Automatic annotation (TrEMBL), chains A, B:
Catalyzes the irreversible transfer of a propylamine group from the amino donor S-adenosylmethioninamine (decarboxy-AdoMet) to putrescine (1,4-diaminobutane) to yield spermidine. Residues 2-235 form the PABS domain. GO terms for molecular function: spermidine synthase activity. This is Polyamine aminopropyltransferase. Its EC number is 2.5.1.16. Homodimer or homotetramer. SUPFAM superfamilies: S-adenosyl-L-methionine-dependent methyltransferases (SSF53335). It comes from Irregularibacter muris. The active site is at D155. Belongs to the spermidine/spermine synthase family. Spermidine binds at H62, D86, D155, S156, T157, D158. GO terms for cellular component: cytosol. The gene is speE. It comes from the Bacteria. It is an enzyme of class 2 (transferase).
């Protein structure tokens, strides 16, 4: 007998993965949460039927949402993650010796609990002394903290359900306020193949708030289309004129100094989305 | 009623596409050939159950297998394509005004026939006066032509069935002989996520024959993992020191001068495969 989990990534295309057992399944206050064992990608966290992270390919997303902004800022000390309850982004943040404090604000405590229990290679840094995990609404948290953070990562689910408010110009304005005067932020902004109008709209919204706005890409096999985008808004530092030679070497499997630059080199059809 | 076509890309993961009608299906002398209508990607050519090309995303593969080598060579006049019976690579080659002659050697005439009939936006250049379409074994053709071509593209199916011999060091040696003294070639070399030992082996084999060997990447949603590799072997010209300013501007949707360079910037785990 073969079991396959299929995510419909759009109405008309999906990814299908051969599975072992379903390790955990529950309806939380915010979403349907499942933790399943897949033969290709190891353990997989699924929220509302959508792949969030897997043991085998999580390194790509977590490295790219973290190291691009943290190597753009010359001296990031205080960092905020909105969402990201699996802990992978926090794990990468703590590789930067300049970071003194990392705050994770996750709305759904069950994501943190299940990740701590079943995804130890991803959640391994959530109990570090430099980390505060807050279970609350990221939008309210950002609104209530001004001039606090060097870097903010919006490590959200797709713009349906609990994450809708994280793809809105009001939120980007609150992010701007929560950052220090030379701060910057990055948000995951979906697939250039399947979410092109979202990418255009988010880019324009961030551009209306931040003087420097740049989109970059990476390849993630379990995410729709395999090509994923992040959009950075920055008050002062430009990601392509960063001086990396004085930075610590960190251990990565995807990110390199060359990838830092080439990730901003966009296929023509993606460039065209941002015009 | 919903119909879905699923390709098992490995034993444990697949892509599934909502389909309209099956336009054509036959068992050719070499493989199972199907032409199906998909809602996400338009018409899709499938050989032995594996997606070859679709109307919506074919531009990526065809631009990247073509423009990277043709912009690396300073003056490509005579070009050979092994495989590629759908005609997309030929269409891109003819965008280069220096090209006087393009030879396509496809083993399966049914691929050419079906593409001409049902995929006119891809096969549109196969009847151009600069093009010769030969229905024969690409390996024998390469063995029988010495010192003939400026650039060769190996636009093959996966290394199972009719294409096995196109992933072998003997074939790369014959390619070397078929190229002029400053010639170069490129082969599609599968996914760095799912075919990592193949990529390592092919890279080493090409490196044993050519003084310059370089791997580059692009993102193709319908190919396994979404990340696809090409390996270039070159006798003289290096793809990263190419002077593009004297080249004609060509109309593309993926390739740009910046992508030409950034495509060679590899994620760390891919760099590690080539060591």
């Amino acid at each position: 007998m073969e079991m396959w989990f299929t995510e419909k990534q759009t109405e008309n295309v999906g990814i299908t993965c051969k599975t072992g057992k379903t390790i955990h399944m529950e309806k939380t206050e915010y979403q349907d949460l499942a933790l399943i064992d897949t033969l290709q990608f190891g353990k997989m966290l699924v929220l509302d039927g959508t792949v969030q992270t897997t043991e085998k390919d999580e390194f790509i997303y977590h490295e790219m949402i973290t190291h691009v902004p943290l190597f753009t800022h010359p001296n990031p000390k205080k960092v905020l993650v909105i969402g990201g309850g699996d802990g992978g982004t926090i794990r990468e943040i703590l590789k930067h010796p300049s970071v003194e404090k990392a705050v994770l604000v996750e709305i759904d405590n069950k994501v943190v609990e299940v990740s701590k229990k079943y995804l130890p290679t991803i959640s391994c840094s959530l109990d570090d002394s430099r980390v505060s995990v807050l279970i609350e609404d990221g939008i309210k948290y950002v609104q209530n903290n001004k001039n606090e953070f060097d870097v903010i990562m919006v490590d959200s689910t797709d713009p349906v359900g609990p994450a809708v408010g994280l793809f809105a110009v009001d939120f980007y304005q609150a992010i701007y306020q929560a950052l220090k005067e030379d701060g910057l932020f990055v948000a995951q902004t979906e697939s250039p193949f399947y979410n092109n109008s979202l990418i255009s709209n988010v880019y324009r919204d961030i551009q209306s708030v931040f003087p420097i706005t740049q989109l970059y890409l990476c390849s993630i096999p379990t995410y729709p289309s395999g090509l994923w985008s992040f959009t950075m808004g920055s008050k002062k530092y430009h990601p392509l004129t960063v001086e990396q030679s004085n930075k610590a070497e960190i251990d990565t499997k995807y990110y390199t100094k060359e990838i830092h630059k080439s990730a901003f080199s966009l296929p023509k059809f993606v460039e065209d989305l941002l015009k």
